[in-house]
Amino acid sequence: LGFKTEMGRLDVSVHPFTGGSHPTDVRMTTRFKATDVTEGLTGTIHETGHALYEQGRSLEYDNLPVNRAAGMGIHESQSLLWERMVALSLPFSNYLHPKLAAAFPEMLKGRTPTDLYAAMNVMQERSMIRVESDELTYPLHIILRYELERGLIDGSIQVKDLPELWNAKMTEYLGCTPTSDAEGVLQDVHWSAGAFGYFPTYSLGAMYGCQIYKEAHRCLPSLDSDIAAGNFAPLKEWLNKNIHEVGSLHATGDELMRAVTGSKLDPQVYLNHLTSKYSVAYKLCTAEEDDSGSVFHFS
Question: What PROSITE patterns is this protein classified in (predicted)?
Answer without folding.
Answer: PEPTIDASE_M32
